[in-house]
Amino acid sequence: MKGELSELEFELKRLLTPKPSKRKRKGKGKTKRPEEPRRSTKSELAYGFDYDISTSKKVKSRWGDKYNIALYGRLGLHCYNFQKGTNYRFVRWQKYSTALTADVDYYITLEAMDPARPKTVFGHCDSVFSFQTMLSDAGRTDGIYITWTTLAARGKCKEALDDEFDEDTIDDFYKSGVLKWLSDEAMAGDNKKYYVVQESELRENDWLQLFMEIGFFSKAKRRLGASPPLEIKKVVIETNEEYITEAREKLKAKNAIYYISYKYIGDPSSVWAGDHKSILRKTMDGKPGHMCLEVADDEE
């Protein structure tokens, strides 16, 4: 336990130290990830997922309950669902390894399931399968408290990763380092760029709950050990592109900014009790398994 705490303290110090650049650029100022070593006996094992990049030792299953690892895994699974049109659900994470580059990279193996598949006669679900996601945590930058980039989201396999997020494909509108809460005047002035998510859609799109949770994780300065009791109140989606036929198309936008209002509904004596707001920005470079999610810094 003692070693685990010291590891967490080191990780937090590294991630929470502000970096001067606003957004990471492809190939600029980035420490190159170690190349995959040649291997023969490990030919059936996935680089990073099944054996540690630094030591080449096999990554052991832990079936742990680290909350941040679960969040990383859930985000990777959401990226896959978004791109493939599936509705796979996170069950639990199995194992993970880390690699230190310019960021902190997490190679996570988890269990996912397809809720659409029927259960067996014994009530067990036979649709559970192994899923891999790789997430790069860039820590804190100017105006942004969290920058998480999924660089792999796939069923368990041993294929090499494309771990370069191509910033050149992202519109400059989504590259500003400062995110401010929407004013009523802004919404009224150009409503084709904004969409207020309907109550029924909040229930249908449970990934909005995940985004809310990540926003609160940022607000709590990453110091949460379990999923908090939160209730989503309102979500406004902003895109630089106007919708074509229906405003609800923005729920499917590859690049968007989310203004989420929610409430902590746990212990009323908690310091977190009451209403909260979070701003998140999602960008995608078009590559399979790639999605970047940023959370605005409350202190800015």
Strand content: 25-35%
Give the strand order of the largest sheet, numbering strands 1, 2, ... along the chain. 1-2-3-4-9-8-7-6-5
SS element count, helices? 5
Structural class determined from secondary elements: alpha+beta
- Oligomer state equals single chain
Largest sheet: 9 strands, antiparallel
Shape designation: globular
Total number of domains = 1
Order of helices and strands: HHEEEEHEHHEEEE
Please give the number of β-strands.
9
Binned, the helix content reads: 10-25%
The stretches of 5 or more residues where confidence is low (pLDDT under 50) are 1-6, 24-29, 36-43
Descriptors for this entry?
alpha+beta, 19% helix, disordered N terminus, MS5
Describe the protein.
- With 300 residues, this protein is an alpha+beta fold.
- It has one domain.
- It has 5 helices and 9 strands; from the N terminus they run ααββββαβααββββ.
- A 9-stranded antiparallel sheet has the order 1-2-3-4-9-8-7-6-5, with helices on one face.
- β1 and β2 form a beta hairpin.
- It starts with a helix and ends with a strand.
- The N terminus is likely disordered.
Sequence-ordered SSE layout with sheet pairings:
Blueprint: H1 2-16, H2 67-84, E1 89-100, E2 104-113, E3 129-137, E4 144-155, H3 184-189, E5 194-196, H4 199-204, H5 207-219, E6 230-238, E7 256-264, E8 274-283, E9 291-296
Antiparallel strand pairs: 1-2, 2-3, 3-4, 4-9, 5-6, 6-7, 7-8, 8-9
InterPro entries: MS5 (IPR006462)
Biased composition (Basic residues): 20-31
Pfam family, one: protein_MS5
Summarize the structure.
The protein is α+β, with helices and mostly antiparallel strands.
